[in-house]
Amino acid sequence: MSDLLAGFSDREILALAYDWDGVFARPSQRLPHEIVDRSKMGWLALAGRGWGKTRVGAETIRSKVESGKYGRAAFVAPTAADARDVMVEGESGILACAPPWARPIYEPSKRRLTWPNGAIATLYSADEPDRLRGPQHDIAWADELAAWRYPDAWDMLEFGLRLGPHPIAVVTTTPKPTKLVKQLVSDPRFVVTAGSTFENEENLAASFITSIRRKYEGTRLGQQELYARILDDNPNALWQRGNIDEHRVMKAPVELERIVVAIDPAVTSNADSDETGIVVAARGRERLPDGDSVSHFYVLADCSLRDTPEQWGRRAVAAYNEINADRIVGEVNNGGDLVETVLRNIDRNISYTAVRASRGKTARAEPIAALYEQGRVHHVGTLGALEDQLCDYDPAVSEKSPDRMDALVWAITELMDDGPSSMLDFMATQARKERGDKF
């Protein structure tokens, strides 16, 4: 490299270090020619994790602003903190990408960036659509559009994108199948670029690649998170991805009332066997404004696997001990005493309850799916394979019993049926409130 740069001056080397289009960008990361020739007004970059969405947004905006042809930019993120932490101050944000001779001044209190040539960018939160009502811009960067809670924010942004001869919108987002994302995909004014995580593999840590392959490869969710494919939900499925995403949390509450490990066992252990579903779930409590309380449920882990009874037993007992669970629940319809025998041989002191399905799997699953719809079940982090099963399961089509889904249903049923705040109690309370009954 030193020999290659030997003929360049220090000034030229510095210029190369900030030459995004000519040196660093992959072809798919460069502004599409349809935007350059003004036949399109928007660029929608749908990309997997680590593809470089933030860098693309920042570099595209700074290039246009530094050219002097665009002077009023809008930066819109899901929240104000995202706009600051990712779009401006992030490792691939504007301040990190800008060269020393064209670095903007950032004024957090004014939510503003000001370039040496006088161009201004204002930061907005998509959680506050009305702040976008009125201001005018000639270029906009909308980040993680799929995470915007209020579609009105996009409408307000688009209404204000009216300055100059050719206003531009750059949208960088994970390809979740939200109504807004699908709207832009079908918008003839937009160029759509889909980018896979693995396009940028040489710039990502090997541990990251290993981790995401283990977590997502081979799952339907992996098609979204790694390969940037928009997944349409099955409208007949009991679970919907949008609902799971909406109520997902990164941490469970510190105070949990109960934790259980549920097992849906496979009765064989060959290459064609079903997996043994092993799901860990917990119950917490939310206090309501009127002093009442309602249970919420947290799906903590999916430990499912395809292996021998000895191995799935060890996996379940390890989860039970590691998370200090109250009980292991095992379905015995197919395996009889198998589950308890396997578990007792590993740890005779575990607390165990056998459960037997007296209703069909759809009848068992529907009350749990209803809890999801009420916003009372929260996945802690991403549980890719489990979520794939939940959102692919169509009770009108599938006769095969999904193992991970069944384990989840047993876990939450055990938690739901214990204590006064069962789902039926909750629904009765809600009905009384709607009638205006006094408590």
Describe the structure.
It is a single chain. By secondary structure, the chain is α/β, with parallel strands linked by helices. It has two domains: 10-208, 3-Layer(aba) Sandwich (Rossmann fold), CATH 3.40.50; 241-435, Nucleotidyltransferase, domain 5, CATH 3.30.420.110. Helix content is 35%, strand content 18%. It is built from 17 helices and 14 strands. It has helices at 10-17, 20-24, 33-36, 53-66, 80-88, 94-97, 152-160, 179-185, 206-216, 220-225, 241-246, 309-322, 338-346, 361-373, 384-392, 403-416, 423-435; strands at 42-47, 72-77, 105-107, 112-114, 120-125, 139-143, 168-173, 190-195, 258-264, 277-287, 293-302, 327-331, 352-355, 377-379. The strands form two sheets. The chain has an eight-stranded mixed beta sheet with strand order 3-4-5-2-6-7-1-8, sandwiched between helices. A hairpin with a 5-residue loop joins strand 10 (277-287) and strand 11. It is elongated. The N and C termini lie far apart (77 Å). Residues 419-435 have low confidence and may be disordered.
